[in-house]
Amino acid sequence: MNSAQTSQKTTPALHVLMPCAGTGSRMGFQSPKQFESLAGRPMALHALNTFLSMSEIKTIWVGVSPEAQELPTDSWPSDARFHLSPTGGATRQETVLNTLRAMSSAGVGADDWVLVHDAARPGLTIEAARRLILAVTEHVYVSGGILAMPMADTLKLISTQNPECIGKTLPRQGLWLAQTPQMFRVQALSEALSEAIQNKFDVTDEASAMERVGCEPLLVPGEWRNLKVTYPQDWALMDQILSMGNK
Questions:
Q1: Domain holding 129: CATH number?
Q2: Coiled-coil segments, which residues (predicted)?
Q3: Is this structure's pTM higher than 0.85?
C-alpha cells in the first residue's frame, strides 16, 4: 500500500445527518415545521445550504418519515452529496440511529465523523460549524463535541407546592445550553444510541447518549442565532434574522 492509499484510509471523512421526521406540533402548522416556508424557503433548507457550502463535508443525509408529505423532489438540493433517506422513527433518536445504519450500509466508514444537526436550527453559520469541526479534530483524545452556549440567565426551579411559583434559584455556574451540530464517530454514536434505546434511557440529544457510555464530549462555543425554533415567537424572530441576509 502506498502512502497516498494509507492517508486516504486513515483520514476520517465528515458527514452530516439531519433528522427531519418530527411533527412540530407545538408550532400549530398543518405540516411538519421543517418543511414550512421560513424567510422564503423551507426551514430545513437553510441549514442544508450551510453544509452544502462547506467543501469539507463529504455527504449529507436527511432522515424523513416514510409516510410524511415531504417537499417535492425538485425542491431538495441537486448536489450529489445529498441523500434523502426514509429512515424516520417514532422518536428523534430512532431517526438518527436508523439513518446512521443507512449511512453505514451505503459505505460510510465506522470511524468517520458525523455532525448531527436539528433542522429546527436554521441559523447555523459556516463559521460555527467549522469551529466545532476544528475543535474536535485537533483534540486527539476527545470522543466528540457539541456547540453550546454558557447559560447567561438566572435559573429558577418551580415550587413543588405551587408549580406557578418559584421554588428556589439554582446556581448557573458551569451550566451550558446544548446546541447542534453534535459531532461524533459514526460507529460509536450508533452503539451509544442503540444501547440507550434498548434500555429505554432518557436521552434528549446525541451527547447524552455518549455520556451514558462514559464519554465526555467537548463543549465548543456556539452562537446565539443558532437557536432552536420551537414556539411561534421563535419562528417570527428567526424569520427576521434570516431575512436580513446575513447568513
A1: 3.90.550.10
A2: none
A3: yes
